[in-house]
Design a protein that fits this description.
Number of strands: 0
Number of helices: 16
Strand content: under 5%
Helix content: 55-70%
Number of domains: 3
Length: 307
């Protein structure tokens, strides 16, 4: 849901629609709507809508003076600022990658050498042909536990993002039916049920629920329900804006701007790998069973020649 689309509702011919839009803008404290509200207030003919505009304008102006913005709220709520703070800049990322590549190469070399040593020892000891059919003790099982894989090493070096560092991705807004939960939000006799309805409406992620949450925020008799309607209405709105920013690329620009403000220059996003040549796979470790099989076949051939 783009803000421009929401603001266009201020020109709707139906006063009820204009009233819903104004209530939503006031509930979510959309500071970018302040100028539009001022302009439409001058020409608004419906007294209820004008009163709502006056309320929303005062609330949004106070939020603006306090430094609030929707983008800041999105970056804080969804962990984008936290992810930027913990993301290495381009130089650090390049150093980590070179360290990781070097470590992976060393591990593969160690695995290959270890496999060849075990194969040579087994052949020198003249192990019986019975071992050929089954796995070698200490080779296939112990090797996996003693020598970490390159993938494991990579994970240990760079690792998955620590808990709470990776941002929460935006969810595509839905058009799922919200009728049941709207009815509960408006009609249930229990405040706890109305509060739960506000939570459920946000989780359904349908922006059509915003006018109903705004109405509950302004008119419900329970402070708990009003607080829930405001909180989850904002989350629903933030996600819709966040999703649009991800789709049009403006969130990537915002992330770069925020990183630069922290003195970081992030690595550019890698282009799609489609069409790139696939690098040749690393050679597998020596197959010990094959080596032993060939050794036993050679000994058998020599014994036949002696006969």
């Amino acid at each position: 849901m783009r803000l421009e689309v929401l603001l266009s509702g201020l020109d709707h011919p139906d006063p009820a629609v204009r009233l819903d839009v104004v209530r939503v803008l006031g509930m979510v404290e959309e500071t970018h709507a302040l100028d539009a509200l001022r302009q439409h207030y001058q020409v608004e003919t419906d007294s209820n809508v004008r009163n709502a505009m006056a309320w929303a304008g005062k609330r949004i102006y106070a939020a603006q003076q306090a430094g609030h913005s929707t983008v800041d709220a999105i970056c804080q709520h969804f962990g984008i600022d936290r992810e930027i703070e913990h993301t290495p800049d381009a130089a650090e990322a390049d150093l980590l990658k070179r360290m990781q590549d070097s470590f992976d190469a060393d591990l593969r070399d160690m695995q290959n050498r270890a496999g060849k040593r075990r194969a040579g020892l087994a052949v020198a000891a003249g192990l019986g042909a019975g071992l050929v059919a089954g796995p070698l003790v200490g080779v296939s099982t112990a090797a996996g536990s003693l020598l970490p894989s390159a993938d494991a090493a990579s994970s240990n070096l760079e690792g998955r993002p620590r808990t709470g560092i990776q941002r929460v991705p935006a969810m595509a807004p839905s058009d799922i039916d919200i009728t049941v939960w709207v009815r509960r939000l408006r009609e249930s006799a229990l405040a706890s049920a109305r509060e739960q309805a506000a939570i459920e409406l946000a989780q359904l992620n349908n922006p059509a629920a915003l006018p109903y949450l705004a109405a509950a925020y302004l008119g419900d008799a329970s402070p708990t329900v009003r607080d829930a309607a405001e909180r989850y209405g904002k989350i629903l709105y933030w996600n819709a804006i966040y999703w649009d920013m991800e789709q049009d690329g403006s969130m990537a620009q915002e992330i770069a701007r925020r990183a630069e403000a922290l003195g970081k220059k992030l690595s550019p996003v890698d282009p799609p790998t489609e069409g790139r040549p696939t690098p040749p796979p690393e050679p597998p470790p020596a197959d010990v069973s094959a080596i032993l099989r060939k050794a036993n076949e050679g000994r058998a051939a020599r014994r036949r020649k002696k006969r």
